[in-house]
Amino acid sequence: MRLTLLVALLIASLPFYSLSFTIAVVGKTKNDSFYQQSFQGCLEFAKSHTEVKCIYDGSNDYQDVRTQVLVVKELLQKNIDALLVSTTDSNFLVEGALKLARARDIPVVTFDSDLLSPYEAYRLAYVGTNNFDFGVALGNAAKLYRTQTPQPVCIQTGHATTPNLNERIEGVRFALSGQSKNRLDGSSGWIEHARCPLFTIGKRDVALKQLVTIISEPIPPIFIAVAGFAQFNSEYSKKISPHKAKIAGQSITIISADTELGQLDILKQGLSTVNIGQNPFDMGRKGAELLYQWRINGIKPKQDKYFLQFHYCTQDNVEQCLVTATNDKSRDND
User: Fold this and answer.
1) N or C, fewer C-beta in 10 Å, the chain?
2) Cα 177 versus chain centre, distance
3) What's the rounded Cα separation, in Å, for the pair 260 and 33?
4) Dihedral, CA atoms, 79, 81, 85, 89, nearest 10 degrees?
5) 282 vs 122: CA distance, rounded Å
6) Number of structural domains in the chain
7) What is the mean pLDDT of residues 260-271?
8) Residues 9 and 121 in one domain
9) Contact 196, 220 (CB under 8 A)
10) Domain CATH number, residue 21
11) pLDDT grade, residue 70 (50/70/90)?
12) 273 and 288 share a domain?
């Protein structure tokens, strides 16, 4: 009995030791397969670390900055040990929740969408896509479908304050004009549609309605979605199918972020032109690893930002993209 008590006391005195370690994964929206994949990445890490538990939460249907803060605060009150979060609004998130996390000594890693630079002290590291470069890739893809000068383009995004999406817009503009801060005005050979950028706030019905409206114009601009909201709408194929011939003839061009299985099926149907995908699973897995190493072993991340690769899918290679994505999904369910 005395030996058992002594061992228990010694274990309790070890730095960062815990019999369980709960990581909360919070995306911008809860019902998004992208963030669900990140959660699966956390679960994958937990398979080899039995003391790790991953829980998942977020705003239910769209990018609501206040709801995200409320969700994170509730999780902090449930005594989570670490937070992996995708930022919707830096100021709201820091002031409303991350200052509380710091006061409670709960480490934070951002994924997918980092905090703006003035707020980066409130997280250990960022794991995800280099979003400016991702925007450049989307913009460069558009160059292959230019038919006029200046060439109109319409950018669709989510919430106006979301850091990663704003970086992608900057990347698109840089690819098409060599500068990233101002609207495309035609001087570079590219001009932004008068109604764009379009803001969806992550609402899929709004996103699809915006897309249909724009591509229904007599001479539609090249449509660049820096997030995949419209393609996550279950009505996408039905609403876009009447435009299939024009997409095939390249008089309508739809370029979208992300390559979820549903999006690749849309691409295979000929209802999208180009999809550029990310690695949400690895964001969750690597983010969990960084949090675990810091809290359990006292090892601080060696990098401030961990950038993951992205990949290109077109109608020419969509079958291979589907094989890769299906294999990834199978891994998620192991």
Assistant:
1) N
2) 25
3) 7
4) 50
5) 22
6) 2
7) 97
8) yes
9) no
10) 3.40.50.2300
11) very high
12) no
pTM comes to 0.91
Under 8 Å CB-to-CB from 13, ≥6 apart: which residues?
none
Question: In DSSP terms, which residues pair with 192 in a beta bridge?
Answer: 153
Condensed to tens digits (0 to 9), the pLDDT of residues 100-115 reads: 999 999 999 999 999 9
Same domain, 248 and 170: yes
Angle of helix 318-332 relative to helix 261-268, nearest 10 degrees?
A: 160
Per DSSP, what are the bridge partners of residue 127?
A: 111, 306
In the chain, % helix, strand, coil (3-state, to 5) comes to 45, 15, 35
Return the pLDDT at 204: 96
Q: Is 269 a residue whose pLDDT tops 80?
A: yes
Both structure tokens of 58? 């977020």
Residues 294 and 158 placed together within one structural domain of the fold: no
pLDDT tens by residue, 39-61: 999 999 999 999 999 999 999 88
The whole domain housing 283 covers: 2-129+279-332
